[in-house]
């Protein structure tokens, strides 16, 4: 394995995979590839270019209505060349996004893909054990999707027997209309975000009551 | 006569049991945690045991449910700084700086030398404090009480220094995008220097309690061996990676904040067992002190924030009260957040537990569109199922402690 340099990797990758296009990035070399080629590109980067370290597998949700809605992003690092690379692929299906699993290339991807499936709802094709990792098995939502509110959604508890006995469920945090509540557009409710005086018993017209 | 007193051969007994179907063993499942003292947070290990041997291990996370990434997408860049304290809550300063640096890269802000020096200094202090906690708790896991008491004593001294600097002992929120929240207090550097003088002999004493301790050696040597290939393949980082003999340290390989000007060594293990990881942490503390001394010796003068950070920082309060433009500027920064250009940025910092990465996707505006946190502990414990297989239950405790993870980073 050779130690790569940023410019070499860029030109080599574009020569080998003409369908890979450069992706605007502030720091590291980044590429868009078609989802069908993603795994081939990643394997080639590992075997030929020395990107032996899988940093991260994650997804980006471009919000409801956007198409393509989901992008899967891989971050690789070369422990010999000390170089990062970002590979991104748009998921074709907006409703049920699917990406190829790379667990057989990097065991590290196992938990990252489980996390991405759990929170973002991107399925990884070929993952040996695609279970939820942070939420409980059977939880109906994917919390990192943009339409999921910050406060949460009222949900049945995982164990229905316990729920029936205790009358308890996972309730949404009581913050509706409050300052930092998610909207599907990714905007904040800025009219409510202002710090304000709690005591409203006095104002310009009504004098402040004396504390005695 | 001696033969009368020989102990029955345990190995032969097991072999006999395996051979005859009469002694067929039944597998048993054991839930270790969520709040087992050795799990260093709320981690549940679903173990399958054959006698005392672990045949299968399934770590279950997800008890904290804090939703850091979701929260980050709903608040301004500045407002997220306190949340980074809570990732690796044993080294909040290191997290603050890593996050601030990521957003600075996105904004294209270069911080002055003084800020870089402060960041290196406080990150190394955080490293010492985190390793002290890790070492003490590890000692406790394998049955050594005194180590914890000693390391806590030293850690308290560090926390007092943090308190003088940041105003808080634990949740420091010290870094700002484009600088740090306040300059060093008068005479603080001398106090850090004094701490280093007192700490080094104490560290030797602490390490002496473990390094040649027979019980400690029995519990750690050749236990939980991670090969070089596995360490890289599973994406381990920090002392867990270096313990396996991979010389990989971002402070050397991709220097940031001027790490290249300091002289220090990267300790590397040879076997990759629990003992190697312990030795790496011990040596890293010595190296951190070395770095701290060099930073103090050449401490640059200047501002504690970047000049072009005016569009990120709220302006100074005296200006806000006299100038209308500054008032409007202050109002916009506080309510809508510092306006960032659109773009993507990924930065990893060498934190005590490993490499902490932030991936920020910005569509412009004051709120990140997507902020992904790559917690080192999350990656470090993903090797547990492989590591715990065919080990004894008591070794699971030893392995957990040697990985030195923090659940705040595993669980989001």
Automatic annotation (TrEMBL), chain A:
Compositionally skewed regions (Basic and acidic residues) per UniProt: 193-212
Topology of this chain in the membrane: Peripheral membrane protein
EC number: 7.1.1.-
Keywords assigned: Cell membrane, Membrane, NAD, Quinone, Translocase, Transport, Ubiquinone
Location(s) in or outside the cell: Cell membrane
EC category name: translocase
Chain spans, region Disordered: 181-212
Reactions accelerated catalytically: a quinone + NADH + 5 H(+)(in) = a quinol + NAD(+) + 4 H(+)(out)
Pfam short name (any one): Complex1_30kDa
Domain NADH:ubiquinone oxidoreductase 30kDa subunit: 32-152
SUBUNIT field: NDH-1 is composed of 14 different subunits. Subunits NuoB, C, D, E, F, and G constitute the peripheral sector of the complex.
Family the UniProt entry places it in: Belongs to the complex I 30 kDa subunit family.
Function: NDH-1 shuttles electrons from NADH, via FMN and iron-sulfur (Fe-S) centers, to quinones in the respiratory chain. The immediate electron acceptor for the enzyme in this species is believed to be ubiquinone. Couples the redox reaction to proton translocation (for every two electrons transferred, four hydrogen ions are translocated across the cytoplasmic membrane), and thus conserves the redox energy in a proton gradient.
The protein, known as: NADH-quinone oxidoreductase subunit C
TrEMBL record, chain B:
Residue ranges annotated for the NADH-quinone oxidoreductase subunit D domain, each copy included: 141-412
SUPFAM superfamilies assigned: HydB/Nqo4-like
Reaction equation(s) it catalyzes: a quinone + NADH + 5 H(+)(in) = a quinol + NAD(+) + 4 H(+)(out)
Enzyme Commission code: 7.1.1.-
UniProt keyword terms in alphabetical order: Cell membrane, Membrane, NAD, Quinone, Translocase, Transport, Ubiquinone
Domain of life the protein comes from: Bacteria
Pfam family of the protein (one): Complex1_49kDa
Compartments where located: Cell membrane
Membrane protein topology class: Peripheral membrane protein
Main localization category: membrane
The keyword NAD is annotated on this UniProt entry: yes
Listed InterPro entries: NADH_Q_OxRdtase_suD, NDH1_su_D/H, NiFe-Hase_large
Top EC class for this record: translocase
Keyword field contains NAD: yes
Gene3D superfamilies for the chain: Cytochrome-c3 Hydrogenase, chain B (1.10.645.10)
Assembly and binders: NDH-1 is composed of 14 different subunits. Subunits NuoB, C, D, E, F, and G constitute the peripheral sector of the complex.
Family according to the record: Belongs to the complex I 49 kDa subunit family.
Role: NDH-1 shuttles electrons from NADH, via FMN and iron-sulfur (Fe-S) centers, to quinones in the respiratory chain. The immediate electron acceptor for the enzyme in this species is believed to be ubiquinone. Couples the redox reaction to proton translocation (for every two electrons transferred, four hydrogen ions are translocated across the cytoplasmic membrane), and thus conserves the redox energy in a proton gradient.
Designated name of the protein: NADH-quinone oxidoreductase subunit D
Organism: Actomonas aquatica
Upper classification of the organism: Bacteria, Pseudomonadati, Verrucomicrobiota, Opitutia, Opitutales
């Amino acid at each position: 394995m050779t130690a790569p340099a940023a410019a070499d990797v860029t030109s080599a990758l574009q020569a080998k995979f003409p369908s890979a296009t450069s992706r605007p990035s502030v720091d590291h070399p980044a590429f868009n590839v078609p989802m069908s080629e993603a795994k081939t590109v990643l394997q080639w980067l590992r075997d030929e270019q020395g990107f032996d370290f899988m940093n991260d597998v994650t997804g980006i949700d471009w919000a409801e209505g956007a198409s393509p809605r989901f992008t899967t992003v891989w971050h690789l690092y070369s422990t010999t060349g000390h170089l990062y690379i970002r590979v991104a692929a748009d998921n074709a299906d907006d409703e049920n996004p699917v990406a190829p699993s790379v667990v057989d290339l990097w065991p590290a991807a196992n938990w990252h893909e489980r996390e991405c499936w759990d929170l973002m709802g991107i399925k990884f094709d070929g993952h040996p054990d695609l279970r939820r990792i942070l939420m409980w098995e059977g939880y109906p939502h994917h919390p990192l999707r943009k339409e999921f509110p910050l406060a949460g959604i009222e949900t049945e508890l995982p164990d229905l027997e316990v729920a029936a006995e205790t009358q308890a469920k996972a309730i949404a945090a009581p913050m509706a209309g409050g300052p930092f509540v998610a909207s599907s557009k990714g905007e904040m409710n800025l009219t409510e975000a202002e710090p304000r005086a709690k005591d409203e018993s006095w104002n310009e017209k009504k004098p402040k009551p004396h504390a005695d | 006569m001696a033969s009368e007193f020989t102990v029955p051969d345990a190995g032969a007994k097991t072999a006999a049991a395996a051979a005859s179907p009469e002694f067929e063993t039944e597998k048993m499942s054991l839930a270790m945690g969520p709040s087992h003292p050795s799990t260093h947070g709320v981690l549940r290990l679903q173990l399958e045991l054959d006698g005392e041997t672990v045949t299968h291990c399934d770590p279950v996370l997800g008890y904290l449910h804090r939703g850091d990434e979701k929260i980050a997408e709903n608040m301004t860049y500045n407002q997220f700084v306190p949340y980074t304290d809570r990732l690796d809550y044993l080294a909040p300063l290191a997290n603050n700086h890593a996050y601030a640096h990521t957003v600075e890269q996105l904004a294209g802000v270069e911080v002055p030398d003084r800020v870089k020096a402060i960041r290196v200094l406080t990150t190394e202090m955080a490293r010492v404090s985190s390793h002290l906690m890790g070492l003490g708790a590890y000692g406790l896991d394998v049955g050594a009480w005194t180590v914890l008491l000693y390391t806590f004593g030293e850690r308290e001294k560090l926390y007092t220094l943090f308190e003088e600097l940041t105003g808080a002992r634990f949740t420091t929120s010290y870094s700002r995008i484009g600088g740090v929240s306040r300059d060093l207090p008068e005479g603080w550097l001398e106090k850090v220097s004094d701490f280093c003088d007192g700490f080094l002999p104490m560290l030797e004493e602490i390490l002496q309690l473990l390094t040649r301790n027979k019980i400690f050696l029995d519990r750690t040597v050749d236990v939980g061996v991670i090969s070089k290939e596995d360490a890289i393949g599973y994406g381990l980082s920090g002392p867990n990676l270096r313990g396996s003999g991979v010389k990989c340290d971002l402070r050397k390989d991709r220097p940031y904040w001027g790490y290249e000007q300091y002289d220090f060594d990267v300790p590397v293990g040879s076997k990759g067992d629990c003992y190697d990881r312990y030795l790496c942490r011990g040596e890293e503390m010595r190296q951190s002190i070395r770095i701290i001394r060099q930073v103090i010796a050449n401490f640059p003068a200047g501002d504690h924030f970047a000049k072009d950070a005016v569009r990120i920082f709220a302006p100074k309060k005296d200006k806000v009260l006299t100038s209308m433009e500054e008032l409007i500027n202050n109002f916009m920064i506080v309510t809508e957040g510092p306006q960032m250009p659109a773009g993507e940025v990924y930065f990893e910092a060498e934190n005590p537990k490993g490499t902490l990465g932030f991936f920020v996707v910005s569509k412009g505006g004051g709120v990140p569109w997507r902020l992904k946190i790559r917690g080192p502990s999350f990656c470090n414990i993903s090797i547990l199922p492989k590591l715990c297989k065919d080990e004894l239950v008591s070794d699971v405790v030893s392995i957990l402690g040697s990985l030195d993870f923090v659940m705040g980073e595993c669980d989001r």
